[in-house]
Specification:
The complex is a heterodimer of chains A (about 475) and B (about 350). Chain A contains 18 helices and eleven strands. Chain A is α+β, with helices and mostly antiparallel strands. Chain A starts with a helix and ends with a helix. Chain B has a two-stranded antiparallel sheet with strand order 1-2. The longest helix of chain B is centred in the first third of the chain and has 58 residues. Chain B is mainly alpha-helical and about 350 residues long. In chain B, helix 5 crosses helix 7. The chains are: A alpha+beta (about 475), B mainly alpha (about 350). At the A-B interface, helix 9, helix 10, helix 14, helix 15 and helix 16 of A face helix 1, helix 5, helix 6, helix 7 and helix 10 of B.
Chain lengths: ~475, ~350
């Protein structure tokens, strides 16, 4: 067989492939997947794998919230993320020493619960006179005219992050205010029940109906939303404006949503959409690499074994059988767990070691038939070496079959990689679908109904699998005429 | 080669694989075990110093104490096999594992420390779950596959193919998570965790077990039956084109009899092999699926052992998985050789 024949055959094969609708669908899906994987840094966040595990990076994201588009399907809508930079805020200077910054926040009708929290960050303070350090007061002016003093006289320094919802001091201040309005009592911070402050959602009641005579703990447990325009007021006192300067250039006020982005967030506030897109890279690479390498190894192994025949064949098949009868998943888990730190290359290697046997056996049986053909004998009579005959005469005939095998073994490899990652035995420097699902499992996302965290990665795995199954079965149909009758 | 010799050859082959795998497991774990053994030895030595050692120091002086300590340390080192070279440790561990002597766990699981006892509790549970599921899958798969083959090209056939391709690409454990979300969280039909209630006995226990088995079994059947039906369909389509089917048709036999009496019997060798291997394959997937459902079988046990670094339990479980798997392989070969005499001639004719 010459390469010209191979080329000719390939052309014919392409023409036949064009007639297979499922195969074409598979190719289209594959192109989309590859494009998505390639454009991950531009579609989402650059260098995601390095940021994925730093909880600091995700601080301004809400935790465990569903995607924004989910609002379209529910009557109880969830507010979205709102970010205010310097230009979106109104700044006034009532006096030399005071700066007032205001942010208008709209809590529209039809939505339940206000934001999940409010983060204020980006102050740049230069202190030359340490005795007159600037301070900040934070108020929330509600649509019913009531004003909550969230923070009074807090010292302001560079890098200061005011986090409403996470700061227990702010929650305490709010609780004191809440009791004062509802029951008319003045309490001190020592009367505030600590577990309420730490466990309950203290932001939702800030955006809820509060009237004298209502029960404070009932409002916290079951807040009735109060819609309208809220005003977050930051009053910054700088007693020595000459010595201590404050720059607001990087100021950022974030009203954390109760819904976020395209795919919601996980328990650390990580953007699951970004994780999902980046995960496709690992899934595709590992899937294709593993099936490609193991197919090549299996092909060469099987053909060599068939060609050499005799005792060598027998020995090679025994080795093959030994590998085939090792239960792979338990052993893979064991090796992964024992080796500790695992890189993607190592995973690929492991999956290849336990994945080449089936292909070797089939290609051996195919090569046994080809081997008996006359032109092989002719080549041998002309003095062609073993390597030459295997590489130039037998392997090219198995190539089309190899493509089908490569395609059909991708889903298995993808699932295997995801399974290992799911068990926590994965590359810690990569973002993979299995790892996202692992986090979902350890945080018992299914028991809490966080569907946006569980469904998409699995669908990703399924789509990658389906893509290659479609291509593989189309190839198989062309190459196995027996099935075409059906 | 006769059937008996063929069988002996297969069994010997399986034993060789078992030996190799056991050796691999032992080699993997000797290093890990050494670390935990050393710390355990040091703990015991400290204990000795505080009690017996302190007495010796008091009554016989420092020199005698040092000597006694040295002797005690050697004794302990021998006990924990820290004095042996690596290859000997691996060898000993291999031999012990082959003799089913797995040792003990550091923490009690299922109320016992003995690895063999722990495995004895977990195995029937896994078997119960996966055998039930596999049997349902096989019956459903063969029935639907035969139907699709009879009406090849129909809407039913095409629908089944699409379903099979879709479920082929799904990890079973993810489907389990999805089913938990839908049926347990959203609809509340099934329990979220499949851990059994230990207080129940008798009929109430049986009911509890059945109730908790339902969702895992459903998941397994959902993921697996499409592939089964599809493979059965493909085998049957091939068989239905054979001459003897034509002959049976020409004789005027009823179609039901042709399909189930002639065609399915002729197609049975690969299907029987598939049955055995799917029973085995399910055990591997069970590791993660049981974890998802919190089902107290071998799979979850494997996970617990991995998390708590119970090397003895891990070795025991892996050994068990391997034995089970190899037994299945031998069984499959036996059945296959029995049903299709060509196999034992073809595969190892030149032995």
């Amino acid at each position: 067989m010459r390469w010209v024949d191979v080329k000719e055959g390939f052309k014919e094969f392409l023409q036949e492939f064009k007639r297979e609708k499922t195969g074409i669908l598979g190719v289209i899906l594959l192109v989309i997947l590859v494009l998505v994987a390639l454009s991950a840094p531009y579609l989402t966040i650059q260098d995601l794998p390095t940021k994925w595990r730093s909880s600091q990076y995700w601080e301004d994201n809400p935790k465990s919230v569903p995607p924004t588009w989910y609002n379209m399907f529910t009557s109880q809508k969830l507010v979205t993320q709102e970010i205010y930079h310097l230009n979106d805020l109104s700044i006034s200077h009532p006096s030399d020493t005071v700066t007032v910054i205001e942010a208008d926040y709209n809590f529209p009708e039809g939505y339940v619960g206000g934001p999940q929290g409010i983060n204020i960050r980006g102050f740049n303070v230069t202190v030359n006179s340490p005795y007159n350090t600037p301070t900040i007061d934070v108020y929330l002016l509600r649509p019913d005219g009531k004003e909550i003093p969230l923070l009074i006289g807090s010292q302001l320094s560079s890098g200061e992050v005011i986090s409403i919802g996470r700061d227990s001091k702010i929650s305490t201040n709010f609780y004191i205010w809440l009791v004062n309005v509802t029951e008319g009592r003045k309490i001190t911070m020592f009367d505030v029940p600590l577990q309420t402050i730490l466990i309950e959602d203290m932001v939702a009641p800030m955006f809820a109906r509060v009237e004298p005579g209502m029960n404070a703990s009932k409002i916290i447990k079951n807040p009735e939303p109060l819609h309208g325009t809220y005003k977050l007021i930051l009053r910054i006192n700088n007693p020595a404006p000459k010595d201590n300067q404050i720059s607001y250039d990087n100021l950022k006020v974030t009203f954390l949503g109760r819904s976020y982005g395209t795919m919601g967030t996980d328990y650390l506030g990580r953007d699951l959409w970004a994780g999902l897109i980046w995960g496709s890279r690992v899934s595709l690479t590992v899937g294709i690499l593993v099936s490609l390498i193991s197919t090549i190894i299996g092909l060469v192994y099987g053909v060599t074994s068939a060609y050499l025949g005799g005792l060598t064949d027998e020995a090679m098949m025994r080795v093959n059988e030994i590998f085939a009868t090792i239960p792979s998943l338990p052993i893979l888990i064991l090796i992964g767990a024992t080796a500790g730190h695992i890189t993607l290359t190592f995973i690929v290697l492991l999956l290849v070691i336990f994945g080449w046997m089936g292909i070797a056996r089939i290609s051996r049986s195919m090569a046994l038939q080809i081997k008996e053909q006359t032109y092989i004998e002719a080549a041998r009579a002309l003095g062609a070496g073993n390597g030459r005959i295997i590489l130039k005469h037998i392997l090219p005939q198995l190539l089309p079959y190899a493509f089908a095998v490569i395609a059909l073994s991708v889903p298995g490899a993808v699932i295997a990689e995801a399974s290992l990652s799911f068990l926590g035995i994965g590359d810690p420097t990569a973002v993979t679908w299995g790892q996202i699902l692992n986090a979902a499992q350890t945080q018992s996302a299914t028991n809490k109904g966080y569907w946006w965290w569980v469904l998409p990665p699995g669908f990703g795995i399924a789509i990658v699998g389906l893509t290659f199954v479609l291509i593989g079965t189309a190839l198989d149909k062309i190459l196995n005429p027996k099935l075409r009758k059906a | 080669m006769g059937y008996g010799r063929y069988l002996v050859f297969r069994i010997l082959n399986a034993l060789l694989v078992l030996l190799i795998v056991t050796f691999i497991i032992s080699a993997l774990f000797v290093k890990v075990a050494e670390k935990s053994n050393r710390s355990r030895m040091e703990e015991e030595l400290m204990q000795w110093e505080r009690t017996t050692g302190a007495q010796i120091k008091k009554s016989q002086g420092l020199e005698a104490f040092e000597q006694a300590k040295k002797a005690q340390k050697e004794l302990l080192e021998r006990k924990y096999e820290l004095n042996l070279p690596l290859w000997q440790k691996v060898f000993r561990k291999t031999v012990r594992t082959l003799k089913l002597d797995f040792g003990k766990t550091s923490m009690p699981i299922f109320g016992t420390n003995n690895v063999s006892d722990i495995i004895k509790v977990a195995v029937p549970r896994s078997v119960l779950l996966f055998t039930t599921a596999t049997i349902i899958t096989i019956i459903l798969g063969i029935f639907l596959g035969v139907r699709a083959a009879r009406h090849a090209g129909s809407a039913f056939d095409r629908g089944l193919s699409v379903f099979a391709l879709l479920t082929y690409s799904l990890p079973m454990w993810w489907t389990g998570m999805m089913f938990l979300l839908i049926f347990s969280y959203k609809l509340g039909w099934f329990p979220i965790s499949s851990l059994f209630d230990p207080q129940l006995t008798g009929w109430a226990h049986v009911k509890d077990v059945l109730w908790k088995l339902t969702l895992p079994v459903l998941t397994y059947v959902f993921v697996a039956f499409g592939g089964w039906a599809w493979t059965t369909r493909n085998i049957m389509i091939g068989t239905l084109q054979e001459d003897f089917i034509m002959a049976a048709k020409a004789k005027g036999l009823p179609e039901r009899k042709i399909i189930y009496g002639h065609a399915l019997r002729a197609a049975s060798p690969p299907i029987v092999t598939m049955i055995i291997f799917s029973l085995l394959g399910s055990l591997g997937g069970a590791i993660i699926s049981e974890l998802v459902f919190n089902y107290p079988g071998m799979g979850r046990l494997y996970w617990v052992a991995l998390q708590q670094n119970e090397t003895n339990l891990l070795i025991g479980l892996t050994y068990f998985f391997t034995v089970l798997y190899l037994a299945g392989v031998v069984l499959a070969d036996m059945v296959y050789g029995f049903l299709d005499p060509r196999v034992k001639v073809g595969a190892s004719a030149n032995m």
